[in-house]
Specification:
globular, about 250 residues, 6-stranded mixed sheet, about 25% strand, binds magnesium ion, binds adenosine-5'-triphosphate, Rossmann fold, alpha/beta
């Protein structure tokens, strides 16, 4: 696919909300080398995220949602553009970090729920959740164990704490991955289809956990293809063919 211009470029954040953007995504392009020509999964996406937003990122399968998330978390390299994040009065361009710096920064600032869970197979559920705490050094080992149990209780998996991920279901793994993302109390939570493998009742419970986190002041970006969730976000972006096709904030102006 050739690169096209973005459908929506301008940031029209209402002037009543004077806070600085927490995340700035600026003209982000991502292309993948394929057998033939380069494939542009993102065609130049620009938007800001403000503190306290609960942002829904919606779009069809293949639209570019996971690719966009990977650009914001720095899990994958961008082709061009920039992503900067401003936490604790420190603004960083995350793609200027090296791998080690980024891992440490992300551990302290972003909780990421991956679409494919990404639990470490040789660690128990408890150890998977303790790992980010142990890497960042914010908690003593006994505190991180206690916190990991607390998080497992929140996602109703405390009884499975000592199991390896392969011995629990996909939906249970998804819930562990959500618990792990919250381990270091990050100000930003980025979740890629965090309810995609859950039944409707469990999905509603998990969505409620995110709503509580939002009410506690966290900023949340959540990918979903479930349009019915739109009213429950403070703002929605629609991604279509690698472009920002719709921003509910712009519509509200
Ligand atoms: N590593 C890759 N190499 C080549 N193409 C890729 C790669 N990763 C993603 N793509 C392509 O980029 C496009 C966007 O993929 P992406 O995973 O971001 O979609 P998505 O919106 O998250 O879809 P879903 O809802 O199914 O998770 C798709 O056409 C996909 O095939
Ligand atoms: Mg995806």
């Amino acid at each position: 696919m050739a690169r096209k211009s973005t459908l929506i470029q301008k940031d029209k954040h209402p002037s009543t909300q004077s806070s600085e953007p927490l995340i700035n995504v600026s003209d982000v392009v991502k292309s993948f080398k394929t057998a033939g020509e380069d494939f542009f999964a993102l065609n130049g996406i620009t938007f800001n995220v403000y503190p306290g937003e609960f942002l829904g990122i919606i779009g069809k399968s293949g639209a570019g949602k996971t690719t966009l998330v990977n650009m914001i978390t720095g899990v994958d390299h961008l082709t061009s553009g920039q992503v900067s994040v401003n936490t604790n009065n420190r603004k960083v361009s995350i793609h200027h970090f090296n791998e080690d710096q980024l891992a440490l920064w992300r551990g302290q600032n972003m909780g990421v729920v991956y679409q494919s869970f990404q639990l470490l197979p040789m660690l128990s559920l408890l150890e998977n959740i303790m790992l980010p705490m142990d890497l960042c050094g914010n908690y003593s080992p006994s505190q991180s164990r206690e916190k990991a149990y607390e998080l497992l209780r929140m996602v109703e998996l405390e009884d499975h704490a000592k199991k390896l991920p392969k011995f629990i279901s996909g939906g249970q793994q998804q819930r562990v991955s959500i618990a792990r993302a919250l381990a270091n109390d990050p100000p930003i939570i980025i979740a890629d289809e965090p309810t995609g493998s859950l039944d409707s009742i469990t999905a509603d419970h998990v969505f409620g956990v995110f709503e509580t986190l939002k009410n506690q002041g966290r900023t949340i970006l959540m990918v979903t293809h479930d349009k019915s969730l739109s009213p429950r976000f403070t703002r929605t972006l629609v991604i279509q063919d690698g472009e920002l096709a719709h921003d509910s904030q712009t519509e509200a102006m």
